[in-house]
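Batch 3, record 17
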Amino acid sequence: MTSQAAILGGADLSGALRVRKPLRARLGPALLVAPLLAFLVVGYVLPILGVLWRSVDNTEFRTELPRTVKALASFDGGDLPPESAYEALHQDLVDAQNARSVGIVARRLNLVTTGYRSLILSTAAKAQAMRPPYREAFAAADPRWGETAIWVSLRRLSRPVVPDFLLVAIDLEESENGIRHVDPDRAIYLDVLWRTFEISLLVCGLCLVLGAPLAFLIAAKPRWSNVLLTFVLLPFWMSLLARTAAWVALLQSQGLVNKALLELGLIAQPLALMFNRAGVLIAMTHILLPYMVLPLYASMRAVPIELVRAGISLGASPLTVLSRVYLPLILPGITAGAMLVMILALGYYITPALVGGTQDQMLSYFVAFNASQVLNWGLASALAVLLLLVLALLFALYRLLARVAGPVPA
Amino acid sequence: MPMKKTILGAGTFLAICSLLVTASEAQEHKITVVSYGGVYTQSQREAFYKPFSAATGVRVQEEDAVEAWPQVKAQIETGKVTWDVVNGETATILQGCETGLLEPFDWKLVDKSKLIPEAVTECGVGGIVQASVIAYDADKIKGDAPKTVADFWDLKKFPGKRGVRKTPITTLEFALMADGVPHDKVYQVLATKEGVDRAFRKLDEIKPSIVWWESSSSPPQLLADGEVAMTTSWNGRITQAKRADKKNFVIVWDGQNYDVDFWAVVKGAPNKENAMKFVASATDPQRQAKQMDYVAYGPTAVAAMSLLPADFAAELPSSPNNLKQGIRNDAKFWAEHLEDLQARFQAWLSR
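Prediction for the assembled complex:
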């Protein structure tokens, strides 16, 4: 009750201040961060929303075939559509052909069913010369116009938002009989998602195992802490790309590590340290280690050593003190470090791309691949949505853990 | 107030500078040409950019892009097109033309009959003939040498890794030819589900031995370093390594997959007229022959063939003896099937 009263009192106080200096009290703080806020909204939030929207956006297709979209609104896909739909499509195709944009429609349909590209292109090329009745004219141009499949696809693509890409991102697709798994030959993204998770978890574990003793040493030996902290922070001053490239130089089959081991006679053949999972784990652990060490160090430094001594003086074994006194006290540091490493690792792209093999690429690689090589921005966005969802889930989990473990050290 | 004066001075200076820059940009005629970089851009600079600038006074601004197409698409979507001319393979140019990323070429500027027929398309003007070939280092494989695509798959007879380009295009064709599909039936077979399965099964045989490459400068490097025993490559890179670095590389012409690489003008290019003129100038036989001093690809101007040295002509995909052993890349097939097979290829790769 007392604290609540204090808060209420505080509110009253600020209320009183507001009466006296309304502009400064209200606008002052807001104005201070306004440039940053505007920058964040324009440079960060809006582009991200734009990317997310692309994963379901279907405006492009609808603008190319406006009449067909209208004509198919009441089409249920059971039978062939009425002549009016054929006529609408005919006019749309003639327009698209003249505007040289028919390829956009063809390419989008081809993503649904391979072969529709040439169907649309060849029909559009003949559209100008077609005369009614259009149903017969279309069927004469290509027998597929006499089947329902293409019309069902057109109907599906005439919706304002389409789930195609989001479904593909989790290896599903829409078919006549509802949603189903994609062909096992083409299933990939669930595997990739799991792999992304697996690599991140492993890196996180390695960072914890390697980082905890170091953090303890820095916290326990203040005399060395400056030097050791410098070593931890040193990699931050170098670009990620340079560090990854350095790992390439170290790990390749003619690299420093292999040469040294060969010279020492420890191995007879160069070890495969690159283009495989081992290389990815080594390089990523090295790059992410500081993110684990720093929060651990902060939480360890805050632990009063007297508590440990008290535990021992009361007869607890060192192991009991570790598990019942020390670990619970540094738990917030562990969760914070683990969460930082995990979240950063999940989005890793350049390191696996350079030192990993084809079986070690993570989700971000496929975002880049679809965006820049296949030019399928819808699928790239859908994969980005997937990654964002995973991160949001992780963050929720972190909040839950943090509440259980107590406040995180600043 | 010296401080204030300095700031004022600097401000005036900057303002004048920016005025000068704008003025000179407005006066100067230039086009921006995007290419693949390295020795290839150099060959284009010497053979096409310099003579074009000398003759017309239009400066050629060079840009290199490994992934040009996302940028072309982004420039057009945002309405800020800064590029004028791009380079691209047949399937890319075809798709770019269909989806409105490219301007239709003004064929009034070029006599079509002076070019090989494959070089003439709606938007793209053929620049070179290039081929995906299999190559090996004769200093390392001696005696019984690889002669066919099937030999590429023969890990017993020719032990060692295999370099393969990380794309389904040409890779699946090689696999089918190695599996005994006649050259002229390759695309017919690949159009069926069974054919695709067959190609991937064949690839499974050598999958653990494959070193994947993406940059076209990698294959000669992989061969020279002894990282691979054989590799697929663009033919020009191999011939160039022989010519410039005195390497003893040999091309296996069996199963060569040849294709035309094109010039094209970006939709809404800021200097469209000069860009068209530049592309037209790049079909000149003399200039095409000069380009081959720097890279070893085939010209698209028929008259340029006779201008090349005789020993060089035998190294071209278009020389009669090589032509009959190879297949022409089916751009229409790939325009239709690329996304589907790309998806399957990616899934196969990551398993």
